[in-house]
Amino acid sequence: MLSILSSLLFAPTVLSHGIITAPPSRAIGSAITTACGQTITNAIKADNTSYVEQLTKLATSDTKFNAATCNLYLCKGLQYADNSANVQTWKAGDVVPIKIWLRIPHEGIANVSIVSTKQNKQVGEPLKLWTKGYAPGKTEKDVPLEQREFSVTVPNGLESTCATAGDCVLQWWWLGTAAKQTYESCVDFKTAAASGYTQERAFKA
Ligand SMILES: *[C@@H]1O[C@H](CO)[C@@H](O)[C@H](O)[C@H]1NC(C)=O
Ligand SMILES: *[C@@H]1O[C@H](CO)[C@@H](O)[C@H](O)[C@H]1NC(C)=O
Ligand SMILES: [Cu+2]
């Protein structure tokens, strides 16, 4: 009982917990303030590894928060317009190394997926999926390295869906199941024509 109480009392609330550091992930700018209001911008500025539930709570206190333009459950509301200088260009078969700064672990589930931003819908299967045991322990060192540094392979079939920058993101999504905290971090990318891939396949075959 006492331990439950103290863990509630001392649960970290402000300085939380994870973000993609490579490739460059979405950051704040003027567009998120327009879309989400100053309170959300300030919160992400203070801690860009914070969790979505904290932001949704803060949003209720800001009359400038607009759910129609700010979906906190997609890239934490971070906007393409603030990140158009950081668009990666990938083609099917590319192997993309990803690095995550996981400040404070909360054991749970996670995945890395391509998400179409207009519908906030996953495109295809997750590129990485942890159905349990993601981010265990108390400090970053407790989290297995392969959960923080790994590669994904760009799948086939994104050639038209993700040809235009801003239409798709690679999203890292993590839910601390006991903490009930959701983390999201997004990389903007567009796909290049897949002709090179086809040739390479034909050559190897
Ligand atoms: C997140 O914040 C850290 C400082 O705490 C900074 O070094 C890093 O560039 C920021 N990353 C993004 C994507 O905002
Ligand atoms: C994968 O991540 C998405 C967010 O991008 C989330 O909505 C979905 O529930 C996750 N799926 C699994 C199986 O973890
Ligand atoms: Cu936490």
Explain the overall architecture.
It is a single chain. Helix 2 crosses helix 3. This protein has one domain. By secondary structure, the protein is α+β, with helices and mostly antiparallel strands. The protein starts with a helix and ends with a helix. The protein binds 2-acetamido-2-deoxy-beta-D-glucopyranose (2 copies) and copper (II) ion. One 2-acetamido-2-deoxy-beta-D-glucopyranose binds next to strand 4, strand 5 and strand 7. The site of copper (II) ion has 7 residues, from loops.
Short summary:
The chain is of the alpha+beta class and 205 residues long. It has helices at 2-9, 30-36, 38-46, 52-59, 145-148, 195-204; strands spanning 18-22, 88-90, 95-102, 108-116, 121-134, 149-153, 168-176, 181-191.
The termini sit apart by 63 Å
Structural class based on helices, strands and sheet pairing: alpha+beta
Poorly predicted tracts of residues: 1-14, 197-205
**Chemical compounds bound to the protein:** 2-acetamido-2-deoxy-beta-D-glucopyranose, copper (II) ion
Order of helices and strands: HEHHHEEEEHEEEH
DSSP strand count: 8
Q: What percentage of residues falls in helices of 4 or more residues? A: 10-25%
Shape: globular
Number of separate structural domains? 1
